Automatic annotation (TrEMBL):
Pfam families the record matches: GFO_IDH_MocA, ox_reductase_C
Domain Gfo/Idh/MocA-like oxidoreductase N-terminal positions: 6-158
UniProt protein name: Putative oxidoreductase C terminal-domain-containing protein
Gene3D superfamilies in UniProt: Dihydrodipicolinate Reductase, domain 2, NAD(P)-binding Rossmann-like Domain
Superkingdom field: Eukaryota
Sequence ranges assigned to domain Oxidoreductase putative C-terminal in this UniProt record: 164-303
Organism: Rhodotorula diobovata
InterPro entries: Gfo/Idh/MocA-like_OxRdtase_N, Gfo/Idh/MocA_Oxidoreductase, NAD(P)-bd_dom_sf, OxRdtase_put_C
Annotated GO MF terms: nucleotide binding
Length: 383
């Protein structure tokens, strides 16, 4: 007996859902791998219908199962009308830009419109970050969380690093040894030479490198430290106007394309307290040349430290030092680790690696880091 069709709707026909040459993001590929001939893509919701049509034709040309009857809808409302209010959808993947979602009012109320149009959805995978607006009561990010919780569906967010095998190993060892986290330390060193899209360098558009990029490490920090006390966040930055902030390998004309008020910090160093009284820190640097990034995440406990590196590669490595055994460092390499696949598998099993509430807490922390840095700069100017 053949398995029942697995019905999917993609929101967004861009790189997050359908891939590019620039990175491993490609949710459609993972769903196809999981369900093969039982996959039924009901359609793609995207106002750029030509792009959606192109993606479907590429799948059909490659003889990928599941796209023969895929429809294209420019809005959630038209998708809901076409499918009917009682149509069960097994999975909706929300890969639309964050500027259109995460809030309670237009133009960023896409989540609420989707929930209303597809009320029988069983699982939601929402990409990170969950919004692009400053988190406030007026913006309504918490109202979106409440709406997802009220839907009765399983909801996860695309913080794929929480699904890494190395992360699982750290969690398991902390539990097995009865350890208490003393602190977390994360660093993200960006290779900027070939980052030439002016919008990324404009924090008015992209929200800045902590909110948009280092958010993955902020998510890992909260996974091990628990909720943060946002009022304790302290941030120092090196700005574009500081002598150490002059970049020698910019691949575009920042002076002509990004106003000074919108330029991103080159170096951000933040520290905070968790509600469990541990300490967290995060450093983000726009400073490497070439195209290889350098990321590292540490968890520090009494007698044991964990250091996870190479998280953007297919073989992340974990260094463990246990002083109760020896001073030697254990090295674990996790070959062919695909956290994108793992996060979908866990979501469909009912245990998402990152819930929407955890993703919103991450978003609030990254904004607290950015705002603390901006306040610190204003205080310096007043001295």
């Amino acid at each position: 007996m053949s398995p029942a069709p697995f019905k999917v709707v993609f929101v967004g026909a861009g790189e997050i859902n359908f891939g590019s040459a620039e990175g491993p993001w490609n949710h459609s590929k993972r769903v196809e791998s999981s369900f093969g001939s039982s996959l039924r893509v009901l359609g793609i919701i995207d106002p750029d219908t030509a792009r959606a049509e192109k993606q479907i034709q590429l799948k059909k040309s490659a003889h990928v199962p599941g796209y023969d009857e895929a429809a294209i809808w420019p809005t959630p409302e038209l998708a809901g009308e076409a499918l009917g209010a009682d149509r069960i959808v097994d999975l909706v993947i929300v890969g639309a830009p964050p500027h259109f979602r995460g809030c309670a009012a237009p133009p960023a109320d896409l989540d609420l419109r989707l929930l209303a149009a597809l009320p029988k959805t069983r699982h939601w995978l929402v990409e990170k970050p969950v919004s692009a607006a400053q988190p406030t009561e007026l913006a309504g990010q918490r109202k979106v969380l409440e709406a997802y919780n009220a839907s009765g569906a399983v909801v996860g967010c695309g913080y794929m690093m929480t699904a890494l095998k190395g992360v699982d190993t750290i969690k398991r060892m902390i539990t097995e040894k009865g350890l208490t986290v003393m602190g977390t330390a994360a660093r993200y060193y960006m290779a900027y030479e070939y980052a030439t899209k002016p919008a990324w360098w404009n924090k008015v558009i992209s929200c800045g490198p902590i909110v948009e990029q280092a958010t993955h490490l902020a998510s890992l920090s909260l996974l091990f430290g628990g909720p943060a006390r946002l009022k304790t966040v302290r941030t120092h930055t090196v700005e574009h106007s500081d002598a150490p902030g002059k970049l020698s390998k910019l691949g575009f004309d920042e002076e002509a394309t990004v106003p000074p008020s919108g330029r991103i910090p080159r170096y951000t160093a933040a520290v905070w307290k968790y509600k469990a009284d541990a300490v967290g820190s995060l450093t983000h640097v726009v400073g490497l040349h070439g195209n290889t990034y350098d990321t590292e995440f540490e968890v520090i406990c009494d007698g044991t430290t964990f250091r996870l590196v190479d998280m953007y590669t297919s073989t992340p490595r974990l260094f463990i030092r246990q002083s109760d055994k020896s001073a030697e460092v254990e090295v674990h390499a996790f070959e062919d680790d695909d956290p994108f696949q793992t996060q979908i598998d866990r979501l469909l099993a009912g245990t998402p690696s990152c819930t929407y509430e955890q993703a919103l807490q991450t978003y609030e922390l990254t904004w607290a880091i950015r705002e603390a840095g901006e306040r610190e700069r204003l205080e310096e100017q007043d001295e």
